[in-house]
Amino acid sequence: MVVCCREAWDRGVYGEDSWGLLIEEFGRGTFGRLGLRRSVRRQSEEELGFPNPSSTVQFGPGSDGNTSRPVQISFAAKEIDVAEWKGDLLAVGVTVKDMIKDETSKFQNSLLKKLDGLLRGFLGKASSEEDFTGKTGQSMVHRLPGLGFKRLQRLLKPVVLASSLPSSEGLSTESKSNTTSALASGTVLGTCDDNRYKSESKKPLLKSVDIIGLGTGPETEKKLKYAEVVSYAMLFGRELVNSLANVLSPAALAAEASKIASKNSDVLSANILTEEQCRELKMGSYLGGFAASANPPHFIHLCYKPLNGPTKTKLALVGKGLTFDSGGYNIKTGPGCSIETMEVDMGGSAAVFGAAKALGQIKPPGVEVHFIVASCENMISGTGMRPGYIVTASNGKTIEVNNTDAEGRLTLADDLVYSCNQGVEKIVDLATLTGACVVALGPSISGVFTPSDDLAKEVLEASEVSGEKFWRMPLEESYWESMKSGVADMLNTSGRQGGAINAALFLKQVVDEKVQWLHIDMAGPVLNDKKHVATGLGISNLAEWVLKKLFLNGFGPCRAKKENNLFEAVGFLKICFMNKKHVTRKGGGVV
Which of 90, 158, 275, 553 is in the most buried spot, having the most CB atoms within 10 Å? Predict the structure, then answer.
């Protein structure tokens, strides 16, 4: 038999901390963005050899099992006898305490004892032989006699799965429902891999999951639905980031954003500004950023308005949308430049549009949310912005560009001015902005910068539920001296020291003082370094923050507060079933 599992949230976001596993194979039975004028002719995407994403690449779950796209998994909370459940795979979460045995080597836990009896002692014997104690990170392989390895591999593809806990005694109703939503989120994020660009890929087969013994009812169903919606929105965000620049151009990103609005047209609208419209709005900072690219820019604005009732608050979510960043004339060269991964420079926009996708389905009342992305590419050509150019942002601030590889903050400057002009009260921006933040906080933690203690508290509290790792960083105003220009209002970069702080201070200059603003530098955790794939960072936290603004607390899909988090010390016991008719007489039988 085969053992393979990770706690899916950690697998998806940080690639850390797998659960312990005990897997058994049995018969199926009762048991996943100086406006420069170009002289070059812009080529079409077809002329450039770019595929049309709408026809060749899919984003989001598929509708059936005939493609490599993840099929939408259905979830149900049930209160039934685990031993009477019918399906393909039963996953039982166990703690060290649950695995304690008596003097006769029998499980003391009533559920494990019952399952062990039904399986003729195989669970007890296997756990003893492999020293499986339910600790986090444990895994165990156990092959039943008479079943060929290849046959087991084929059969370990469950379509119907159940997840349960040996005991939920002492758990509050809230803790049970949080655990239920965490199991659903973990299943989606852990089982749905992005296989769109692989010539051969395994087809996802899991279709339904029953979560047993953690309660039922309207609140549990609501949390299950929320977990499902946000998790699939995270998969969508991952797929955007995973898509390389020859697939996800600014035009393609705008098209995907428009699809989100059209599918939720009762609450979402889309406005895509052309280059000429951006010139009319005097977005010189943004216009300078894409001057070298043959691909036209797309300034994307989605707006969420509730179906009915008064609007209590107006928010803006802003994302950096560089679908590729060569560095421009300050081209990325040398070890560690990471030019080969610069398709991820639109990670902020993926977070914003993933949140739009989720909120468009959740349809929270009383809030208006603007999703804003200035999408473009930073390339090199005769029309490109040179170091030393001066550009003017749409609020009149002049910027001396001393480094063309610090273009993200130039696009964000006009993003933020535009956002303030929408009359919002609070802005959260997300950007893969600086390598300095990665040096400071490492690959798993995003830096949070804001002059507002209240807004910092809101976003950080949301992160406690979403499970995303944020750390508030200082906005040291004395550092601004290094960002002052002799010929313009400011430089776009300073020296190496305090780079992440200086970048945040740059953005602060263009935000209206009446608007609360928070910046998230997500350059580190946008990618899972171990697996070289996107994490979907920011989507869950943004959705949670918006809902908490409406006092819709406790919706978190992935983690409850630590005292209620069952997954801090849980392993998983999996039992996979197959029908007796699948076992030939040759080589033995099955229990």
Answer: 90
Q: Are strands 208-212 and 74-78 parallel, antiparallel or unpaired?
A: parallel
The pTM for the full model equals 0.83
Contact residues for 504 (Cβ-Cβ < 8 A; gap 6+): 449, 473, 475, 519, 521
Place of tokens 């006699």: 145
- Residues ≥6 apart with Cβ < 8 Å to 41: none
Q: Looking at residues 385-407, what average pLDDT do you find?
A: 97
Structure tokens, 227: 């977990």
Q: Model confidence over 272-303: pLDDT tens digits?
A: 999 999 999 999 999 998 899 999 999 999 99
Per-residue pLDDT, 167: 60
What single DSSP character describes residue 443? S
Report pLDDT digits (tens) over 179-200.
888 889 988 998 888 888 888 7
For residue 324, give both structure tokens: 């590729």
Helix (H) or strand (E) holding 367: strand 367-378
Where do the structural domains in the chain lie, given as residue ranges? 8-32+59-196+204-216+561-582, 245-549
Q: Which H or E run includes 576?
A: strand 571-576
d(CA 562, CA 172): 14
Q: At what angle do helices 347-362 and 218-242 cross, to 10 degrees?
A: 150
First to last CA, the chain: 15
Contact between residue 347 and residue 253 where contact means Cβ atoms under 8 Å apart: no
Architecture of domain 8-32+59-196+204-216+561-582: 3-Layer(aba) Sandwich (3.40)
Residues with a known catalytic role: 332, 409
